[in-house]
Amino acid sequence: MTGEWLRTGLFVAGAAALVAAASWVQPGVRSSEIFADVGQTFFPRLRNVEDIKAIEVVDYDETEAAARPLKVELRKGRWLISSHGDYPAEARDRLARTGGSLIDVKKDAPVSDRVEDHGKYGVIDPLDAKNAALQGRGKRVTLRDAGGGTLAEIVLGSVAKDKPGVRYARLLGQKRVYAVKTDADPSAQFADWVEANLLRVVAGDIVKMTLNSYQIDEQFGRIANLQRTVYERGQQSWTPQAQTIAAALASLRVRGAKAKPRELAEQLRAGQLASTLDTVMSLRQRGFFIAPTGLLLSNEGELIAETVKGLVYTVRFGELATDSGAAPGAKASENRYVFVTTSAKSPEAADAVSALTAKFSDWYYVIAGADFARLHPARAAHLKQPAPPLTNMPSPEALQGLPPEVRRALEERMRMMQQQPAPPPAQQQQR
């Protein structure tokens, strides 16, 4: 009898253990855990936009399998894009939107606790070198305070299908993925953090434009294939093409920027360009040259635009930009350097020229190939064809139509060419 009671006791204990195990693994209990933090704020320390002193956004370029970081910092009262040579962060609305969009964001609906699902929801950390996935990486956003402390750090993933205003998100270092109601979409694109209108000009204010197209033979100091096109508003020359160029000027955006040497920047602000070793080398690397007269020339020509307010812009087109740090994108290989200067035709424009000179003097700008094609359509089309030999010298009539300082520079280049011995036939063919 005692043995029978013993066996009964063992059966009862075993059944109790099975019940306990079942309650431990049953789906209802597990699902209650995943909903434990629903409604809680992601970042309780983030209460005010004013507390944010640094913003880091890291996006992922799947075509190049590379993370693209952008960092903006507040230093001595100025917001600077520290990841791009301390270029000023001019888009203040972008600063406010990026910081404000993460305040009071709540953990609305958890969707997964599985690491295997991170790619599905697009929340893989773009900086995770251990994960070999090229797809499914999200956008990593970090907000820091004045002491460098982390106010917020999150990976924003894919937008939820059929759910407007909802996207997936994951706290860095955690497995859980949430569907979150937020309009947060921080950008890691340089162009989104700077002025949308680089020149600060309105298309309707442009009254005259002059396209000077020429080539420079760097080896022999020659200028060739000179062409000049003038567009004047109210005249027959103001064609649909002229309207396209004016509109392109008024909406010109930069894809990147490269700091000029300090010496060159100071010279430009003072209006006295000098040929020093650092200046000449920096200019030549990007397709710009100082003529013996001090005139600045560019290997892909220039566009001069005059406004009704007496402001004159000169946009010089240089080399393809390969070292600018410009963001990738469609036909990124066609990004091109431009060198922008301004002058005044009337005293009323002096203040505007001073402000723009202070801005333009420090930087080589990088524009997209598509913008170059709109601003200089003939030259852009010509570059897609084999370059002709640099032997067609500008005619005296063509020189007469140029501004005096340009004409003098070209005439001096022509004299230099005449003093140079002609290259052997073999070299001519190679060129």
SSE layout:
Blueprint: H1 2-25, H2 27-34, E1 54-61, E2 66-75, E3 78-81, E4 87-88, H3 92-100, E5 109-112, E6 139-144, E7 150-159, E8 166-171, E9 177-181, E10 206-217, E11 222-232, H4 240-250, E12 256-259, H5 262-270, H6 277-285, E13 288-290, E14 296-298, E15 302-307, E16 311-320, E17 336-344, H7 350-360, E18 363-367, H8 369-375, H9 377-383, H10 396-400, H11 404-419, H12 425-430
Antiparallel strand pairs: 1-2, 1-6, 2-3, 3-4, 5-9, 6-7, 7-8, 8-9, 10-11, 10-15, 12-18, 13-14, 15-16, 16-17, 17-18
Would you count the extended β strands for me? 18
* Low-pLDDT residue intervals, each spanning 5 or more residues: 10-30, 387-393, 417-431
How would a crystallographer describe the biggest sheet?
Answer: 9 strands, antiparallel
Strand content: 25-35%
Query: Which strand order does the major sheet show?
Result: 4-3-2-1-6-7-8-9-5
Structural class: alpha+beta
Percent of residues in helices:
25-40%
Amino- and carboxy-terminal Cα gap: 111 Å
Total of helices = 12
The chain-level mean pLDDT equals 82
Order of helices and strands: HHEEEEHEEEEEEEHEHHEEEEEHEHHHHH
Assembly status = single chain
How many structural domains are formed by the residues?
2
Radius of gyration: 31 Å
What does the overall shape look like?
elongated
